[in-house]
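Running this now, will post back.
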Amino acid sequence: MPRQPTKTLETFPNPEPGRDYVIRIRVPEFTCLCPKTGQPDFAELTIEYVPEALCVELKSLKLYVWSFREEGGFHEAMTNRILGDLVKATEPRFMRLTADFNVRGGIYTKVVAEHRAAGWAPTPPVHLP
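Update: finished.
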């Protein structure tokens, strides 16, 4: 059983590659360090994606998120870095990462970053009466 954080994101085959569907993952315990003070920053991450061929494996995601605990970085940089790593690992049709950081000095920060595969457009929603 792994007892150390890792930057490796594992994947598994999408069980329904012919269908657009959304996977939502909530990570309520993200921590990193403020690059100015070295104090901990806490955030809730929400990952939403439409997979293509691969899905992210959750245990590896947990260990990946853990790997940021001792790293310093601005909220914007952390959010975009994590999105980039997830996109590189899974090559999704669409992915959105929302990083909702806890208050720091009376200021809340929420960073939203998105990736959309070239040529992909969402299926129009169905409105039922």
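Residues 93 and 120 are 6 Å apart (CA to CA). More later if anyone needs it.
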